[in-house]
Amino acid sequence: MKKKFILNLKEELKHEDFIEKNISIPFDSLDLPKEYSNGSKDVEVHLYIIKEKEGYVVSLNINSDIKVECSRCLEPFNMDLTGSNSILFSKKLGKNKELKEKDLYTEYLKDEEHFDINELVREEIIVQTPMKPLCDENCKGICPVCGGNKNENLCNCESKSMKKDSPFSKLQVLLEKKKATK
Q: Tell me, what's the pLDDT at 95?
């Protein structure tokens, strides 16, 4: 059963100017794409929500990691997702047709009585995950000829292949024929 964390911001901040909460969200309750996994550990979230005139400022710190596949060597590795972000949730939908810079950091709050923490954390995890994750900045990848992981076993298949497929490889054959005739 997937556990949802819903806050009633209207009620929680009725008598307070801010709230601070620590929440452990089960990873499988975040409905992340299937390529995301973390070994069923919980995602630790520290929330700090301030009531503003136009809405709410939500600061969240996420402490988790996910298992992803390296885009170069195709090996799985754990990527650290520890990070923080602040978002302004506005109760008013902007009437201006033209976006201003401050609008880029503002989200429209649909229902302040049913604020979905799971959805907020899910979005943050997806945004923090690079499109092409790397196990190491200096990852050498896989050999396109033999398919071996170059980080574990250096091979020279590419240079051999380039020499063999080179247009000048015919000259090498001629040189060898000339040496054989001498």
A: 60
Which string of DSSP letters, residue by residue, matches 11-45? HHTSS-SEEEEEEEEEGGGG---TT-B-TTPEEEE
What's the Cα-to-Cα distance from 138 to each of 73, 129, 179, 181, rounded to whole Å? 11, 18, 44, 48
- Return d(Cα 70, Cα 164) in angstroms, integer: 30
Half-sphere CA count of 171, side-chain side, radius 13 A: 4
- d(Cα 123, Cα 121) in Å, to the nearest integer? 5
Instruction: For tokens 């298949």, name the residue.
Output: 157
Residue 94: per-residue pLDDT: 57
74-110 in b/e form (b: 16+ CB < 10 A) is eeebebebeeeeebbbeeeeeeeeeeeeeeeebeebe
Which residue in 17, 26, 76 sits closest to 52, CA to CA?
A: 17
One-letter identity of residue 61: N
Low-confidence ranges of the chain (pLDDT < 50): none
Question: Which SS3 state, helix, strand or coil, does residue 83 take?
Answer: strand
Would you list the domain boundaries of the chain?
A: 6-128, 145-182
User: Tell me, what's the pLDDT at 98?
Assistant: 64
State the pLDDT at residue 103.
60
Looking at residue 178, what is its pLDDT? 79
